[in-house]
Give the backbone structure.
Amino acid sequence: MQLENYIAGSWIKGTGKQAELLDASTGELIATTSTGGLDFGAMLHYARTVGGPPLRKMTFPERGRMLKALALYLMERKDTYYQISYKTGATKADSWVDIEGGIGNLFANASLRRTLGNMPFYVDGDAVKTSKGGTFIGHHIMVPKEGVAVHINAFNFPIWGMLEKVAVNWMAGVPAVVKPATVTSYLTEAMVKDIVASGIVPEGAIQLICGSAGDLLDHVMSQDVVTFTGSASTGRMLKRHDRLIDESVPFNMEADSLNAIVLGPDAVPGTEEFELFIKEVGKEMTLKCGQRCTGARRILVPANVLEDVQIAIGKRLGSTVIGDPRTEGAMPDGRQVRITMGALAGTAQRDEVKRALAELLKGSQVVYGDPDSVHVTGADAAKGAFMSPILLLNADPWKNQQSHNVEAFGPVSTLMPPPTSTMPWPHQARQGQPLRQHRHVRREGGAAVRVGRRQPPRPHAHPQPRDGEGEHRPRQSAGHLGTRRPRSRGRRRRDGRQARRDALPAAHRHPGHPSMITAITQQYQQGAR
């Protein structure tokens, strides 16, 4: 089967070299696709001239009712999408997030019709008089762009990634061109065919590219919008496109990130918070086989419970059943099996994860899992894109910076301690800013210690000159001629804080900045960005 592209009101197969799309669990060929011979310039022109005008004429209530009707229509056909989604390696839970979560975006945006007014445009606030007699007034209104929204989406959520974006631009009265990631585009194609067949959205409101985007961005104009979800390297390349710069085209990028999950020092083993933490780490690592941009890649844990956390996470991951989601249920030997983690989207994606893992291993060690071996239920591990969950330990994350700079976009996370038990947690500092903006309380030995509101003492407005060997000349003032002015209460507080800071070990003070922002925490912040 060859996938089709929906362009200018017609389903068209691309010519030339075909990309092969394989089942993530079995390795079987699902379809081929190509965008050879397609006219992307004509595609965007069709969206602007055919899809845009009817959408712009619709009022917000009309657009909202359109989204609601489409959501109900697609929900009736969700079982078909589930069956196709299993081919991407997604379990029932993974597919639920993608399919019903995506359709939920349509419902959510449809509900905005009650708050945006009964007009094709949005009136922002009240009119403002700009002259004494009211002969001049100013009033802001928000009108639909007269272009097209171009959506370049990631492979991990082929439905949710599309619907979360088109729901917004349709509600705003703008047509869309959707370019899903090629590897899972067969699921997006199935839903777009149903959207087109429904007749609920105007012709030209949606078009689809299954394959390479070719010279698509060469044809965008100033009234268009481009969104991108995917790797930071690809996003930066697209953002520098000459056409986007020349036409000042708005470009929105959602790129990969190195999110962290942090265990507080008072959440010790045996507490409800500790158990919840372990449960959430297990979910973060296995949901969608770790292929989520919001997945927690760094697990920050106090050093005194590091071993307990490592053991608990290992036990949690040990209960993970990896396999083909379609084999869930009764097995030939009579066992009831529930697949809790499927495969990566494809073997190419698995290879990419292993390349990133090799880089992470330069500063970490594997404490759970085997990158080269995995036990699979209901499938052949050699044919599918399966991978074991991998838990790493970075014993010195402030020296080994790989954990803060490299993301393995799969079931891989790194466990790491803070540098010392006395170091402030990363959320208690911001690079280049004193801690006075943060009023967190840390418990130490049963006592509450405030760690916020720390900053250097303010210098005198008029520094006093010195005489001889560094001795201060007496301050001359009306009330204390020839004597020092008594220190104010606020100044005594500042001097006391400065003395306590000076008593800290040098490693705990940031060079050139007497606040509690440490060099190590600053390095962490740079890595987190």
